[in-house]
Amino acid sequence: MNKAPPRSLRARLLRHVIVPLAVTWLLGTCLALGVSRYFTQQAFDRALLDDAYAVARHVRMDQGALTLDLTATEMSTLLFDQNESLYFAVYLPDGRLLAGHPGLWVDREGASSLPKFSEITFLNRSLRSVVVDRQNPLPFTVVLAQTTSSQDRLLEQLLFISVAPQVLLLIWLAWWLRRVIQEDVQPLMDLEQAVAQRDAYDLTPVAVSNRTRDVQRLAEVVNDLFLRIGQSVRAQREFVGNVAHELRTPLAGVRALADYALSQSDPKVWQEQLRSIAQSQERASHLVDQLLALALAEEAEQALQPQRIALDEVVRDTLMRHLHRADALDVDLGARGLDVPVVVLAQRALIEGVLDNLIDNALRYGLPEAPLERHVTVEIGHDPQTAQVVLSVLDNGPGITEAQRTRVLSRWGQGSAGEALKQGSGLGLAIVSEYARILGATLTLGAGDEGLGLKVSLAFADQPNVG
Fold first, then answer.
1. Helices (DSSP H) in 58-148: which residue ranges?
2. C-alpha distance across the termini of the chain, in Å
3. 164, 187, 250, 322: which has the fewest Cβ within 10 Å?
């Protein structure tokens, strides 16, 4: 069974406005008609009652008996009505007709001091009647009835006069509402058309209409979405381009080493070439990890939400991951400032990425020549001037000059140690710089303890801390 397509927003708005308005109009019309009918009936009943009292005033005592002292002509004059036909009857208590139209009778229980109004049928005509009981000079009952054609016509006129203008007003209001709703919905339809007609690769902002705030905000949200998608697409393209460009050289080297090894028959040459292939694979793997880290930076900026992170716990966990490598290189990998819990508002993945890259750089390029002891230290401290939490990684290696500090923060930039060792890709500190920007932290490069080595610090602004 096919489901009916949903109605348009314009149709739904019209229905939600016109239907309640029409129901309200109908209820108001019925109420007005009921009130009009009530007061019209009251006016006609008052006139009918006055005629009944007029007839009763002409009932007299004559020789000990009741009589009506009006002739037929006088009665016709008294009960004359240009539009209606009137009928009357005067009855004695025993039910005998004193005067009037025979058969004009209203069934009721006993006499009453109050007049009684009712609807009756007489001579095959529907009449409005009133019954009046009088006690002077002797008890008698007056029944007066009349047709209701003028009353019905008056009600019809009142209904037409009250309903017709309101119907016209409702039609005009529906037309006006349709017009203004169309004008208000048009920016939304324009936005829909603009998005539907554009190419899948077109992520330029759509035009923002300021006619209504809601449509303006919707267009701004769509543009923000296009901006985020554009950033993601650019990051993906940049990642693919970087991988394609940077992996071409190590993969070509691996292929050359393998070809050379296959052309030799000496097992020692095979072993030497396999060792070189393993080193090339390690460099390529490290490069891929760094390129993925840059891609993570783009994702973190758009998706990851800051949380309260125990910085001291993150440092301990990171140190544990690098202890085996540090021991193999005979490096004293330690930490300072972990005795007091420190909490920062950040993303754990980014902080771990910062520490991993800084510790990796220190173990690669920040080691002094033997016989000097090799130290790499992770430190958590506080800036006494700004009270900011500061995370630092220090080494006692050769360090870098002030002229090189700006260059090593850019992608593919390396210091003198990296260039001499011909290792790495120059992405480590660029990743740290990008992560620091996303974390809202200030990145600084300086000399380590006693002016030796390199100290890289991140100062977290406006961070909650727990002591």
1. 72-78
2. 66
3. 164
Buried residues in 146-185 as b, exposed as e (16+ CB within 10 A): bbbeebeebbeebeeeeeeebeeeeeebeeeebeebeebb
Report the C-alpha dihedral over residues 165, 171, 173, 176, rounded to 10 degrees. -140
Please list the residues that pair with 334 across neighbouring strands.
377
CB atoms within 10 A of CB 259: 10
Which residues is 146 bridged to in the sheet? Answer: 86, 128
Beta bridge partners of 65: 62
Could you tell me if 138 and 251 lie in one domain? Answer: no
What's the gap between Cα 144 and its chain centre? 70
Type of residue found at 129: S
Task: Specify the pTM.
Answer: 0.45
Order of strands across the sheet that contains 97-100: 97-100, 86-91, 140-147, 125-134, 116-122
Q: 327 in a domain, yes or no?
A: yes
- Residue of 38, 141, 146 whose CA lies nearest to 87: 146
* Structure tokens that stand for 295 in this block: 């891609």
Q: CA quadruple 284, 289, 293, 295: dihedral positive or negative? A: positive
Domain count, the chain: 3
Q: Which two tokens stand for residue 6?
A: 């949903």
Q: Encoding tokens for residue 268?
A: 């020692």
For 391-413, how does the pLDDT look when each residue is reduced to its tens digit (9 = 90+)? 999 988 877 776 666 666 664 44
Residue numbers of the domain that contains 289: 198-303
Averaged confidence pLDDT in the chain? 78
